[in-house]
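User: Before I run my own analysis I want an independent prediction to cross-check against. Here's the chain; please return only the structure tokens and, at the end, one sentence I can use as a sanity check.
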Amino acid sequence: MRFAQVRTGRQFVLALDHGEDLLEGITRFCADQGIRAGYIPLFVGGLRSARLVGSCEPLADPEAPLWEEVTVEVLEALGGGTLAWDTEKDCLAPHIHVAAGIKAKSAEGRVSHLLGATVQFICEIPIIEVVSDTAGPALTRQRSAELYDVPLLGFGTGN
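Assistant: Structure tokens:
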């Protein structure tokens, strides 16, 4: 277990409109506002399409992370996640998961890591900034070679 007590900063509600790219919109908003770390407690919205981590094939190694993706269309979604700074790429690295119902299939659901999405009608996203008492972002994202190169959440420069 790893943890850090965090201090919240500014709080926003971002509304992304019809046709906007969800991850690009969040990333651009955070850059415009100078947000380098934070979290999204729960967002709601419609998605025209979404790319999610998933596969329709049997898993070769159920313990390993899945890098494949599936695309699903016309969804109602709830999601949330963290906004941490990727120290290797020097950019924001959102980590968002969604639970989404496919409208055309009696709201049949999908739950997974979000790789990308296009908004349908509107997506309402609260963003809470996490600030650091020291130089640098309060939350970081670094890959762990011993865990399949998965990017893990770290805390400031000490991780």
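Sanity check: The CA atoms of residues 51 and 71 lie 4 Å apart.
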